[in-house]
Amino acid sequence: MRIKQALIFGILAIAAGLQVGAKDLWKSNLRSDFLNNSAIIYAINIRNFNAQDTNGNGIIDFEEGEISGNFINAINRLSELKDSGITALHVLPVTPVGKTKALGTAGSLYAASSFNSINTQLMDYTINMPAEEQFRQFINAAHSKGISVIVDVPACGSYDLFLKRPELFVKDSSGKPVVPSDWTDVRLFDTGDESKLNPDVLNLYKGYVDLMVGLGVDGIRADVAHSKPAKFWKELIDYSRKQNPNLLWLAESSDSWKDAVSDKTVFTPYDKLLKAGFDGYYGSWFNLKNWKTAKELQKHVELNQALSNIIGEKKSVIGSFATHDELSPLLEKGAPYVRMIMWLNATLPINSYYVDGFDTGDKYLYFWANKKARISYTDDEYYFVHRGKLDIFNFSSKPGNKNDRIQEEFVRANNLKSVAEQVYKDGTIKFLNTSSPSVFAYAVTNPQMTILVIGNLDYTQDTEVKIHIPKLKPDTNCLPLVLNNLPNFEKGKITTTLDAGETQVLIFENFTIL
């Protein structure tokens, strides 16, 4: 194996060059970028994104002058995200939250009490500007950095909203609103079915679209999209595209999910949602933690590659390896799993997706979790929280920790995604045979460049493996971008040892694998 120094500098220069220079005049390319698998999306909860927890107790103590995350102080972190390679933000719900029968001392972001206004919890009260205008300021600031903004529309309504507008909700035989799944702080909307929609709920969501499009957002992520009929989404998406033809629609839906959230509502599978107008969905990448063989990974890549042909128009998917609903990957499989997620996001034909705190190594473990609160702003007296997941229920400190290796590789992986995008334009992905069923290997390849990714799905032991590459020669030029152990090049194969859960990334110049 020869490591060509010029190639090292060339790759880094390409990556850096493709990451700089936001346009002065904003024109959203989010939808086209997403459909071309080039978006790098970062999910944030404004309420804790840049919270100022000066006493370090993990909770925002307003009576001591501490400041929760808000639209204005969130702007201060945008340069940091831009420098990390982020191209789009997924902003968790900014709708007002319910305070009755609530979860947590601030209320769940997904327990919406209104769909045509902005959550005043997210305001900076030191400036004389309404919440809607403060959110617009944040959106404009993101755009000035070349970062698109996707907002989340909740799937259900809070109990407070039920009390105001009971006609929007499904009721049981006793007239009580239905609690979907085990989400005790929300109630199920009566959306209707494919034969007849509830116009009141549809108009509620149209009001949300009007608000968000008017504020200048670039996309909408639909929470629990499968809980509503395809006809509902088609009407709503068509309505939105008359206002903004380039508005991205992302469905929280998976090919793995088969069950409705309640026997009182529909279940719409992912393919019908895509046919209704969604540009993409979640896929099942969160199952990576359970996959034992390379074939399982390959099968899911092939499923998503076939989406566009199955649906009849271009569709895509996000790397849903670790969303705010998933346990911290550090708790799942440790740091090697975190790094594997980054390099798969960077090189597979998917849109990269991360949650705030992922890149710093946050485990989302809160010492105050589920203890009785000193002060609450809802009727819940406890700091309700999901262990190992981003807090969406309380006024808490911003996600943190500091893992230098993860942070450094996070930026490198995002830079590599720009390079991989160029290779995909006139190239392809090819899975390679390995001598171990637990080791995957695939090449993103065109005549000018090949990116080879090798990963060990066994997180318990090191694995020595041979990867068969017919045209390989011992003196082939190569840049080992990420690895713990240097591989050995032979005629027609690579031999390497991977640590438990390790991912290796190698780049070849003027070499193709077909």
How far is the first residue's CA from the last residue's CA?
A: 20 Å
Biggest β-sheet description: 8 strands, parallel
Structural class: alpha/beta
The value of Rg in angstroms is 23 Å
Q: Report strand order across the widest sheet.
A: 9-8-7-6-3-2-1-10
Number of strands: 18
Helix content: 25-40%
Q: Mean of the pLDDT scores?
A: 94
Residue share in β-strands: 15-25%
Count of discrete alpha- or pi-helical segments spanning 4 or more residues: 15
Tell me the overall shape. Answer: globular
Unreliable sequence segments: 5-9, 16-23
Main attributes?
514 residues, alpha/beta, five-stranded antiparallel β-sheet, 18 strands
Concise account of the structure shown:
This protein has helices spanning 5-19, 30-35, 46-49, 71-74, 78-83, 131-144, 159-164, 199-215, 230-243, 270-275, 294-305, 307-311, 329-332, 335-347, 404-425; strands at residues 40-44, 88-91, 148-153, 157-158, 186-187, 219-222, 248-251, 280-281, 316-317, 352-355, 428-431, 439-445, 449-456, 463-468, 478-482, 488-490, 493-498, 503-509.
